[in-house]
Sequence to fold (421 residues):
Amino acid sequence: MERRKVEVNGREYDWPDAPIVVVCIDGSEPDYMDRAISMGHMPWLAEARQTGTDCVADCVVPTFTNPNNLSIATGRPPSVHGIAGNFFWNPETGEEVMMNDPAFLRCGTIFAAFQEAGAQVTVITAKDKLRRQLGYEMRFGKGVGICFSSEKADQATLAENGIEDVLDLVGMPIPDVYSAELSEFVFAAGVELMRRDRPDIMYLSTTDYIQHKHAPGAEVANNFYAMMDGYWAQLDAMGCVIVLTADHGMNAKHDPASGEPKVVYLQSLLDGWAGEGKTRVILPITDPYVVHHGALGSYATVYMRGVDSEEMARRLFEIDGIMEVHSKGEACRRYELPPDRVGDLVVIGECDVTLGTSAERHDLTGLTEPLRSHGGVTEQKVPLIMNRVAAGLKTEGLRNFDAFDLALNYAVTKSEPAAAE
Ligand code: ZN
Ligand code: ZN
Fold:
């Protein structure tokens, strides 16, 4: 019999014959898993990498959370789905526009398409900022669809989220927005809902609070990865096909001797060269939760008015710590970005260097640990791991947004999936 297929944004996916769980581990530089495994903290993952599929993939640049989560959810790069960061600048109104609203999405998601085709879909995120975009065009209700964040789990309703009384179900209190528990709640809820509903498709997306503060191999990081390993083992025991990937990596961005963040303040430089008000530096990492990174990442875009942008690009490229400077056209071709949401220049910092606007506009008092962050090309390598063999998979050129392709089109599922209980 011909297997049923669902087409989403020009890609075709087979109907799942076991529950699919795709996990996006925020900021999961590959070294976190390698170190945790080598130190004996992830027995399930160590086994899954041996017996399943163990690859490294490229994520989307800018290596930020929203563009990558939306790429995984749609199977396509930002040039198709339209989300290139948390912010873009509207030169007509002079306003910074936040791209968190679903209205900014330019294509549908795999979740909504499968739901439309009759699948039961469950989406759980750590932070609420992602929840509305990932739930775009989804229908909510028992047996149909669920989408909520652990941040606002206590406010979830049947009408808006397809679920209520989440805290009772999970048996955990509402976690603090800056905590490891915010991510743990995602997995605890995922396991409970897999047991209760056995949805066809589940997407679990964490927050990188731990990775911003702790390097691979550190005790806190290892405990965090051990926690996840335990939940994945439970999902595996329920017969789920599990694909693990990340939205981006994470690197140290500070001086190793002093612990001070390494920052190139672009707006100050450009104001000095072109005059004030001629250029506008946008840092698309900026969002309402900047405490753990001070809005410092390794990617910036610059809007210009009446300025020789080639001259500015040349001068920026000479600055120590700047790795790449591209015109809008070049950046959009190379990184598959939507031109109307990118400035005239794209600037990328070296591995250990972040890009800021001006020193007085970054509040770094919340940085209790030496800065670790992301955004640049040096955070593009992420894990792409599945607890099943992938039949006929070409491992070159894999992207993190191939996660559902891997799970639905390549997983060799066990002939007798384990019973749900
Ligand atoms: Zn992230
Ligand atoms: Zn982050």
